[in-house]
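Narrative progress, year one. The postdoctoral researcher (J.K.) led the effort to move from monomer predictions toward full complexes, under supervision of the PI. The following entry was the first complex the group processed end to end, covering 1133 residues in total.
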Amino acid sequence: MDLTNFKEEWKYTNISSVLEKAYVTAPSEVSAEDLNAFRMPGHHKANELVFVNGRYAPALSQVLSSENELVILPLKEAMNGFFRDLVSSHLNKSADYIKDGVHALNGEYMQEGMFIYVPKGLKPQHPIYMYHVLDGRQAPVMAQPRNLIYADERSRLQLTETYATLGTSDSFCNEVLEIIVAQDAYVEYYKLQNDVAHASQVNTTHISQIGRSYVHTVVISLGGGIVRNNMNLVLDAANNEAHMYGLYLLKGKTHVDNHTLIDNKQPGCFSNQLYKGIADDSSTGVFNGRIMVQPDAQKTNAYQSNKNILLSDNATINAKPQLEIFADDVKCSHGCTVGQLDEEALFYLRARGIPREKAEVLLLQAYAADIVAQIKPMTVRAYVERLILEHLSVG
Amino acid sequence: MLSIKNIHARVEDKEILRGINLEIKAGEVHAIMGPNGSGKSTLSSVLAGREEYEVTEGSVAFLGKDLLDLAPEDRAREGLFLAFQYPVEIPGVSTTNFVKAAVNEKRKYNGEEPLDAVSFLKLMKEKMAMVEIDQSLLSRSINEGFSGGEKKRNEVFQMAMLEPKLAILDETDSGLDIDALRIVANGINELRRPDRAFLVITHYQRLLDYIQPDFVHVLYKGRIVKSGTKELALELEEKGYDFITEQIDLAALSGLQ
Amino acid sequence: MKENQDTLDLTTPSEYKYGFVTDIDTDAIPKGLSEDVIRLISSKKNEPEWMLEWRLKAYQYWLKLEEPEWANLHYPKINYQDIIYYAAPKPKKQLNSLDEVDPELLSTFEKLGISLSEQKRLTGVAVDVVMDSVSVATSFKEQLSEIGVIFCSISEAIQLHPELVKKYMGSVVPMTDNYFSALNSAVFTDGSFCYIPKGVRCPMELSTYFRINTENTGQFERTLIIAEDESYVSYLEGCTAPMRDENQLHAAVVELVAMEKSEIKYSTVQNWYPGDKEGKGGIYNFVTKRGICKGNHSKISWTQVETGSAITWKYPSVILKGDHSIGEFYSVAFTNNYQQADTGTKMIHLGKNTRSRIVAKGISAGHSQNSYRGLVRASKQAVNARNYSQCDSLLLGDKCGAHTFPYIEVKNKTAIIEHEATTSKIGEDQLFYCRQRGIDPEAAVALIVNGFAKEVMNQLPMEFAIEAQKLLAISMEGSVG
């Protein structure tokens, strides 16, 4: 089977080289020391959920919140127990939107996934950090993480996800995370991708706002081999609000494809999207941003902006913003630009004695700053700022 | 000419006009003043026929016709003109083209032939001089990129072109510097006729320094609470709205007791 | 708003006024497509052997292809064996002057507002008229030839200027380019040919008027325009068809070649029969239009006003090969009732310091679907490529759709590409403002829509612009506000 069927959706990303490889998927032994190198600041006060080769690793994880605040169960158990109805009515809605073989492949591993539930009216004391560790120390490794999160009415969820490959063999992480957001819930979601060049991903985050709620997402992509991010937001209740941000700073041969969808299904929703990218060396940045406004979604306000900077003649930017509008009383717009660093600003800095390379780093940092500023928790933001500075300063 | 009887109006569920009575005769200039939120702009919107406003009670007769029964464009063709507080921009449509469409629609309604290009341009020249407006402005997309003063002058220019029987000026003075205010007021004064009436809606007295009203009414909480001559406007200028509104509020309170 | 909608709903849509059929003797071949049919077409046109070979090669290639499905268009499968590939008004003898044209034909074009009689014409527009499969008349030919401009039907060009046709036909749109260009290459029957020699500024607008008349006929015309160094030409194209219940296929190919410092301005007012209110009938319009700015400092500008056709699939493009070359695309696409349009452009930047500009205005009404699809590509060599695109959509009514699919591909770090798109409906404030000045809602909508399309209309030659504005108003009648 051709896993990237639906050609138009894979127009600018060819992952056949990734899919053709032979991978092991077996569980492996990862120690706390192995993990320490990737731990994010603030982890002492966070619920840390660790997944090794796609499977939940309780021994490495730390859940600080009480069971009344945060429920963490294997999906298998949730499907048969108390949460049966909830899980069965929401699981795998992503498949309605993503019909390719890569997504279907993940579905085969659904049994291994976890279910996370934030009860009504609760704000867990501690944020959630999710680590995906792929152990490539022996052989090429593949992981198929599959998780479902339900943020119930009036609850609050703050989640940061990150990825790490151990060893020198190739890794491929094909993740599907679904987040259901109920009435008056507030969800912040952060994704940090700073993995090694031989780590590839197809990363699907599918968020459904089933009650009037607020969602805020930021995706930061700094590293990896071929990375495809499917970020879907389904606004399935009236007057939903969603904010979607992304930053991709690419070097080497990294290829990052941000594929976003905002599906306005009900009236009066507001969404604002800003994705910014920089492509250097032989890297490729892809932005495919789709906004749909269904016939019932009158009074939709949807704004999208995508900005790119090319730093090298071997780098590529491909952008495909899309508006598909079936309701008339709407205000929708998108803008997309590809350009360079402001030469005037660069000259100004150099005239003040700052060497060109340093001046460039400063300007690139400034360019990235309005996305980074969207990361609300200070610890995570400071961490990302540090990663970006390191990333820009090296070679 | 205009007879407003016990008008109540609301927008969505909020009642804004709560029983307004007003008689305007040909040749008269009436000023309506009042604090923010008193219902001044609602009154002009109801008279012009904005559909968000629902009239729940009362009647309005205009030159013997039931005004509320007419579509907005027919009210205009009957001779009612509203100078908008915030004139909208229509990209790609020049003022000249727009005014030509409006003038000819009105002529058609009155069973007259459309104006030919020569007479139209002649008429335009004449009225342009009156409001000191420039040809270049009229060639541009209507109101697009106009300054506040240009927008208001454009409204007065359109009024001159359409020769209404009743002109409602909705806060035409707002956002104008003193020179623009003088030009706009002069334009309006030029248009005063024995057979034409004006309803001037304003927050401040200063416009009335230039346009002498025959009557001044104070609107508060959806009702006309005081009427008088231009001296009332001066009194308001001096003492502020509070001196009237406090009395009203106190009276309302004592009424409750 | 409710009341406005009612008012507009009540308005009867005016009839498509070009929907009549001319009763004229037609020489048509039987339905269907095969090598024999292609041989027949070629022999009817008395073509040289090389042309026939070219056609057969295209046909063989076409057989291997599948109809494209990526556009945002939905229509039943076309049966290519159910189409007549050649129909010509009889008799088609060599005409010595326009006076010899069948009077019935002349009156048809008079009815369409196209005067072929040179004495009667006041404006300096040379016209080539194509009815069904063949060119029936070309005006001002002699005056043009005095300054070296060749303006004739493509059939004539194949006979008289084979070296030019051989050199350029298929050089911009190869027969292998796509499904419809391959089909056209196999069966094209006529079209216009223009050649502007070096240093000549064509003194009049050149124009072709296309008319489908015969039932079940497909129209496959082919237009080729070559502008030599430092020349200039403005070319206009118009089209209409009778009202019929069946869909008719139109698959044209247009190629433009602009040499150094030359400029080609190509304007289209597309008014093929759009089908009726229920979506029955109408032309399927699958057109490949492409120009190449071959020489440095050359310029190609496409302007289109698309109001007709049941289905429109059309992307007039520019390949910016010469350094400092300029490509422009100005488009108004109006869809009403059940019309579907998927139209836009491709700007392929190859040369240095190339510039392109895209202004696309989509207006959807009724149950129609209107998509903009456009590609801007800056290749690795395209140093300092610049593009600015603005795509705006206006929705009239809540049963139609407006879609925007831009593709931006940049491989050069000195390129600057900007794209902006907006979608909205007519502002209620604008509508009320007009009504307060005594303009009725329908006229107000027309006024606002014309304003919305103004930037594109301004690009049309004066005479055409007035025509296009009227056309837009007619197409809009009966649409919901």
